[in-house]
Write a structure and sequence with these properties.
27% helix; alpha+beta; 135 residues; 3 helices; Nuclear Transport Factor 2, Chain: A; two-stranded antiparallel ribbon; three-stranded antiparallel beta sheet
């Protein structure tokens, strides 16, 4: 069953609500179910620089090494490659269908990284646009 494969997770940012486990004050922790849990996982992968997590120093995406790069085709190619490698390594529930990075039309120091993916268990297609600041 797709739901059992995708599972659920605590909603990011952590807060009260939902019906998962009682907290110390009796409130329930808000949960992210199935597709939202996958989306949040991809966002966390892209938002984490390798070395940032003590218990898992290899976790994350190396786009953060490119934060002060000079814009252009080479940088965009490096960003796309880093995102593809990170999602391929850390999110086994998805197939990446395409990744594109393009400059924001107004903010020149902002790249928009468009990730198109399909959840393997359901073949549902989604996209996520991740803002990547160059400075």
């Amino acid at each position: 069953m797709a739901g059992s494969f995708l599972g659920t997770a605590w909603r990011f940012k952590l807060g009260a609500g939902g019906d998962v486990g009682l907290g110390l004050d009796g409130a329930r922790v808000a949960e992210a179910g199935e597709a939202l849990a996958v989306r949040q996982s991809i966002w966390l992968i892209l938002s984490t620089a390798p070395g940032e997590r003590v218990a898992r120093p290899d976790f994350g995406c190396r786009i953060h090494d490119l934060a002060f790069g000079i814009g252009g085709a080479s940088l965009i190619g490096d960003v796309v490659t880093a995102v593809e490698e990170a999602i391929g390594r850390w999110e086994p529930r998805v197939d990446v269908l395409g990744i594109d990075a393009f400059p924001h039309p107004v903010e020149k120091e902002l790249l928009l990284v468009d990730v198109e993916y399909a959840i393997r268990a359901t073949n549902s297609r989604f996209n996520l646009v991740y803002p990547f600041y160059l400075s």
